[in-house]
Design goal:
mainly beta
């Protein structure tokens, strides 16, 4: 199996792209970037230097992933999402001289397995998006998001929990602290703001 790169995309020779991946028109993948298998990089998307991307990741059109971001397996990055890398951005230093590489410290966003970032959301580094979490469209994330957390707003705040299917979980009336996925029936336990997926026992 091989990968596909459209003629107008720019992929540096030092970048590595996994089998079955597709890079669409006008996308740019910088030096040393690593993409896993089965990824889709949409039109106009940007992947920064040395960024690490797992398997089966989707970067929709015009998503911007700046180094040193890390994306786990199965991550979804919606259209026009931005993952920043500078806590104190300036074009120039205090003396008015243009900043160059080495004049500032890059910090990254880590997006864990299965998480989704809605269209036009912004993740302000440094922070971590937890496993299977979901960021609503247009949200501005400035703090870590817990596993299975559903966040929205500016700045983003947790408004609920989501399961692996992406559907908002519902708390069981008869079992406070136990959350159920309406689609799959999967159960999760909440303890002090942390949600843990309940593993089904084999019969």
């Amino acid at each position: 199996m091989t990968y596909k790169v459209q003629p107008t995309a720019q992929v540096d020779q030092s970048a590595r792209i996994g089998d079955g991946s597709s890079v669409w028109e006008l996308a740019q993948i910088r030096e040393g970037a690593r993409l896993g298998e089965g990824c889709v990089i949409g039109r106009g998307a940007y992947v920064g230097t040395d960024v690490r991307i797992g398997d089966n990741v989707k970067l929709q059109n015009y998503a911007l992933v700046y180094e040193p971001a890390e994306l786990g397996d199965g991550v979804f990055v919606g259209p026009a999402v931005v993952l920043t890398n500078d806590r104190n951005p300036r074009s120039v230093d205090p003396g008015g001289r243009q900043k160059r590489d080495g004049d500032w410290e890059a910090v990254g966003v880590k997006v864990s397995e299965g998480a989704s970032l809605g269209a036009r959301s912004v993740c302000v580094a440094p922070l971590r998006i937890g496993r299977w979490a979901m960021v609503a469209a247009g949200a501005v994330v400035t703090k870590d998001v817990p596993d299975f957390g559903l966040v929205a707003g500016v700045p983003a705040r947790r408004i609920g929990w989501v399961g692996r299917s992406g559907v908002k979980l519902v708390e069981r009336v008869e079992e406070p602290g136990v959350w159920e996925c309406p689609r799959t029936g999967a159960l999760h336990d909440e303890d002090d703001g942390v949600l843990t997926e309940r593993v089904a026992r084999a019969l």
